[in-house]
Design brief:
heterodimer; A: mainly alpha; Serine Threonine Protein Phosphatase 5, Tetratricopeptide repeat; two-stranded antiparallel sheet; B: alpha+beta; Methylamine Dehydrogenase, Chain H; 4-stranded antiparallel β-sheet; 9 helices; about 20% helix; globular; UVSSA_C (chain A); DNA damage (chain A); Uv-stimulated scaffold protein a-like protein (chain A); DNA repair (chain A); RNA polymerase II complex binding (chain A)
Chain lengths: ~625, ~450
Amino acid sequence: MEEREREGRGKVSSLIEKATNSTSPEVDPRLLKAIKSVARYSDSEIQLAFDTLMQKMEKEHSQVRYLALLIIDELFMRSKLFRSLLVVNFDQLLILSVGFKKDLPLPAPSAIATRLRSKAIEYLEKWNSSFGIHYRQIRLGFEYLKNTLNFQFPNLQQNAARREQERREREMRSKEILLNKFETLRQNISLIKGEIQRTIDEIGECLDILHPKEEDFIPVDTEEEFESRSVAFQKIRLESLKEGDKLHETSENKVLFDVLRELYKLVESKHLASLQDWISVLVRVEPADCRFRDSTLKEFIDLRNQLRSVKNRCEGCTLTNIRTDEDEDIWEEVKIDAADSGIISSPNVPNNDHASTFTANENKNKTSGKTTKFSGSKNLDGKGECSDSNSVKSSLLAEAPVMTWGASLDDWGAKRDRLANQRGLEIEGHWGRVDYDAVIPAEKIAELNVQAFLYKEDPVEISPCLAPLKSGLLCQRRDLRVCPFHGPVIPRDVEGNPIDQAPLPDDIIPDLLVEKLAKQAVKNVRERDRDEVKRKSDKHLLKRAKLAKVREHNESVLRDAALASTSYSESVGAANQNGPVYKENKQTLSSMLRKKITPKDRIAKRLLNRRASNATRELILGEDTKYREAYPNQW
Amino acid sequence: MWKEVGQREMGRLAPHSFVNRIKSNRISSLELSNYKEILSAHKGAINSLQVDLTDGRYLLAGASDGSAAVYDVQCAASYEGNGLVAKHEKIFVVDKQHEQGHKYAISSAIWYPIDTGLFVTGSYDHYVNVWDTNSTQVVVNFKMPGKVYRTAMSSVAKSHMLIATGTEDVQVRLCDIASGAFTHTLSGHRDGVMTVEWSNSNEWVLVTGGCDGAIRFWDIRRAGCYLVLDQLQTQLGRRPPVLLQSSLKGSTSKSIPDQSSFLKARTSQKKSAYGNGTKHTPIHRTKGSMGQRQHPGMLSSHDRATAHYGAVIGLKVSEDGMYLLSAGSDSRLRLWDIESGHNTLVNYEATRLQTSKGIQLAVTQDSSLVFVPCMTTVKAFDIWSGRTSMTFRGHYEKVNCCWFSSQDQELYTGSNDRQILVWSPSKTVHAVEDDRCGEVLMSNSDQDNWSD
């Protein structure tokens, strides 16, 4: 029994030793399990584990402390004995894990130290909530960190509860709003329905009046038919219809069309949208009686379908008109754009007023024809003629200059003289006679209106370098051509491997192609040369290695033979001389402590070495003496 | 424990020794109490703690935020965790909001020794206030020439009502509550007076410790101080050896066994020795000290003696009034024999004491243990051997004061982390049995839980 215990004794401490001697951010789960199962075995194990862990916590290495803390938490949550042992020195544990004392900060790898601290705080909160009532020390530690040092605890439980509460409140609120809406709907339903019905009726009447004329051309287009056909086909068909259709606005049916257009707009912008809203409200709301909701929902869906069909009919019958209407819209947009460079002084045109728009357009054509200040004016010239054709317009638009808004646009292209005292300012004859009718000639105004521009660079998208870094991320440096760390910026795939350049595009200039080929050839040749050299040197190296090996073997044999006769110190010296043992690049606990060499360090090494500083000092000294010689009376 | 009860029943054990045994048992098991908790009403460091001397029920605390509060340590205000943790809340608090409250930190708060109707606070705002406990109003106040470090009232006084105050000033002033004026101004210290303490055996004797490292004894009926303790005047053991000459001649190796046997003899018959000690000590007294008694103006060489290197920050007279414990900013504790005025050379284990503030020591009733605030911990030393017998960890910042309530065998400590902690004996067998039912319910959540 005792023997077994002793065996176990070694075991738990060696297990902890092994578990804490690692660089991973987690304790090896197998080791942890082993520790737990061993510790469970007896109280003396727990005692030993506690002692070992506290020793580990005192190590001057955050990683060791961190892993030890993880194990402590595991045991703490399980064993009562462990808890009672731990709380005796609870402040010590907190000092070692949270590091709140100024004279005892957490040890070296600072990244892990912060992790250790946050973990410790998290654990403290957990321990306090689960065992705080039984251990005053835990309560004290928690209160001290919270109330005196004002540490921010993650507050996991409370946070979760609060979030839940907030969510519930939000839901409640939205439900309430929905219910309110539902109530208003219940009150206003007849009104809404009546309005929509009226609109539908009106449209129907209008169409009825228009219908007899076009019934020959459009044999009752049902919506299915429309939907079944492809859009392109529909378009072609409509185009043809449009050609054949004589349903143009004439002076007699203009009124009718106007009404129809208005109603169409009403349906599209108001009724359909509001219906959609109501339907969504009805779907989401959970009222006391579902019957009303269901019936209303049904009615609304019917209404919506009805509206859609009416709308489609409308589009079908009066597509041309509507098209023109849309055209008009676009055209008006153009007008607004053009207005920037055209007439602002002319009265603003109401959107639907055809006549005035036309006049405005003509007006503009006239005026823009006369402007000569811009290269774009030519394009503006052409506008009047091809205002119907979309493509020409858009191309013109693309080329049209964009002017900044300003007073200079007031008399854009106006070729008339202007009064110098345009605003009627009363000028007293302080300095002599005043010519109230002084006029600035048009040429002068044009001259004054010439504007200066600042060159604006086109924004260039600089792509990141994206070369793979050691940390597993991609280099995010943005350089135009060459990244200082990873060479020329080339297209790379998601992992950062360079993608081979795409095959040369066909339209590349032959000159370039030739050049490239030549380069490639040179490169190939060089590569071959290099390979050869390398192979040679490899061979050489191999030979040398073999030789070295033989020599080493010989030496070791000799040394072994000689060791018996030589003194200890000599042999030790020889062993030390045996060459530096190159460390593997593997991460160890001590390597974590080593400071990383940052670019700043490298620069500092370059700048702060003796030679550089000597040089600068000489320079400064030289300048100083020169200055003193030049101005001996100045200090 | 049951054995002792049985012996007591049989009459084999004397009542007082039975009590003493139980008490010392309880004291040796002091630990941070999980079932008693004082909710501190202070926003600053606790500088002074005292349980009243009459009821042993009301704990008076003075804190650095200028507040003083009284807590009921017997009756809990509320319970937490199914009655597991009793929370003791303040009965009242006087702080800066109070129109007569102190402006700056309260350094000392003491009860009027006769009853709980009055208490006295001394503060860094130069005032000593005497408060009526029931109306929480100031009855009298005294303006001091500097910051008040410590106030003391004699618990054995029958003929005077004086508050001794140690301040920044070199003079110790005695304030009379009855008249509201200073009755004495004791001058002798060369620096501020950190701590004052009345003798427990003589109502006229006052002990003061100053920042100059001197501990002075004053007989307030006479002018000047009659004794200055000198750390270099030493004696081995608790009493001066019977035969001074022989002990001086004899080697130390010889005297030590003598000493230990003497110790043993004394502990067995401590109670009976009280009267004798005072009677026969004058016989052993050296001539020099006799001379000092007779001549108030002392020799200058004696006047310059120091008890500590650095300031004296804490004084405590033992319950029987025969010994004095002093703590200095040199992180030393010294035990003095008051009768001879010698350093007894008890080597208290190395500690670190805080140096910036005065500390308040506590001694158990039978003078076996002294509780000393040592930075963030409180240590209990065996008075006679100087060994650490217990260490109380729980505070997170420096501990300023402690008070031992011999009635309940509980220790109260106040610290810079604003907490007042209760250290009580672990629950005894029958107490556990009483709470068994509640305990079973509660302890379910504190059991081993090996899920894997």
